[in-house]
């Protein structure tokens, strides 16, 4: 089966390319849910004093504060998390919640700080990608395999961000950290594949690629399993640790995308390159 797939690799390159394009269109037209860190506003962690549903709590706060941009992110047992689209004085929120809930923590971010945080994200992702690209070119000193690795890493990030848009995972400083981690995960498997196929002399191309695939899939599946365990624990046992569940979700999406981009796109480009070179 692997040999048949390897012989008909050209159509397989189109699969990750199409998924990447769909993810990009999803981000452009559906957008991303920016966290308080990036768009400004306030985030309150509450302890409920009486039984109340999320929509009821949201309606109460909107009426008491005279705001439309209030969103209850979660209500679990006696805990609730509320996001305000504008910076609201904590005293006003406390008065609005009197008899309903008390405030455990309150985080307020003004528009100036949120703009600075967004600029820092652009710089962090940009520098990480540039330095990764330079390192790849230095290691292989061959434009086609190097570009294939960079394309695979870029596709992983785009698909992960598209998944964030699809599933409503907020773009925050924490989720950007997960995206930066994905660059490392993606490059690991791509460099493994490229090194085995181009530099190893033992066995044929198919054998080398299959050996790299076994190792790479073991790495990816192990990482996906650990992130899935973290996601399930934080969602069902520690719902207040929403940051960890968001990081785990982004990594799961990106690691699944990495399997497709590495073993279909990158492997297909390498096969085409070796055919032309021969």
Model description:
There is one protein chain. The protein is an alpha+beta fold and 278 residues long. It has helices spanning 2-7, 9-30, 36-39, 54-65, 90-96, 111-140, 143-167, 173-199, 205-236, 242-277, and strands at 41-48, 70-76, 79-84, 101-109. It has a four-stranded antiparallel β-sheet with strand order 2-3-1-4. Strand 2 (70-76) and strand 3 form a beta hairpin. It is elongated and about 75 Å long. The two termini are 24 Å apart. The mean pLDDT is 85.
Quickly count the helices. Answer: 10
Structural class category:
alpha+beta
Summarize the biggest pleated sheet: 4 strands, antiparallel
Please indicate the percent range of residues in DSSP E strands (runs of 2 or more): 5-15%
Q: State the low-pLDDT regions, or none.
A: none
Reading the helices and strands in chain order gives HHHEHEEHEHHHHH
The shape, in one word, is elongated
- Helix residue percentage: over 70%
Radius of gyration: 23 Å
- Spatial ordering of strands, largest sheet: 2-3-1-4
Q: Number of DSSP strands?
A: 4
Measure the end-to-end span: 24 Å
Q: What's the overall average pLDDT, rounded?
A: 85
């Amino acid at each position: 089966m692997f040999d048949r797939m390897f012989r008909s690799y050209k159509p397989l390159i189109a699969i990750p390319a199409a998924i990447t394009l769909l993810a990009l269109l999803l981000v452009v037209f559906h957008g991303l849910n920016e966290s308080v860190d990036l768009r400004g506003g306030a985030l309150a962690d509450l302890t409920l004093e009486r039984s109340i549903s999320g929509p009821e709590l949201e309606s109460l706060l909107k009426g008491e504060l005279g705001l439309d941009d209030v969103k209850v992110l979660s209500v679990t047992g006696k805990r609730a998390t509320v996001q305000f689209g504008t910076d609201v004085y904590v005293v006003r929120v406390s008065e609005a919640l009197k008899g309903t809930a008390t405030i455990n923590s309150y985080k307020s971010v003004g528009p100036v700080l949120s703009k600075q945080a967004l600029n820092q994200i652009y710089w962090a992702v940009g520098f990480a990608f540039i330095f990764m690209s330079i390192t790849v070119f230095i290691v292989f000193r061959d434009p086609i395999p190097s570009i294939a690795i960079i394309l695979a890493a870029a596709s992983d990030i785009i698909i992960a961000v598209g998944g964030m848009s699809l599933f409503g995972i907020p773009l925050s400083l924490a989720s950007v950290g997960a995206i930066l981690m994905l660059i490392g995960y993606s490059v690991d498997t791509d460099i493994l594949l490229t090194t085995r196929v181009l530099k190893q002399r033992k066995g044929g191309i198919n054998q080398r690629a299959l050996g790299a695939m076994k190792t790479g899939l073991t790495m990816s599946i192990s990482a996906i399993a650990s992130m899935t365990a973290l996601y399930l624990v934080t969602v069902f046992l520690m719902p207040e640790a929403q940051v960890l569940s968001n990081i785990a979700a982004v990594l799961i999406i990106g690691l699944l995308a990495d399997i497709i981009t590495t073993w279909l796109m990158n492997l297909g480009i390498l096969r085409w390159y070796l055919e032309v070179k021969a």
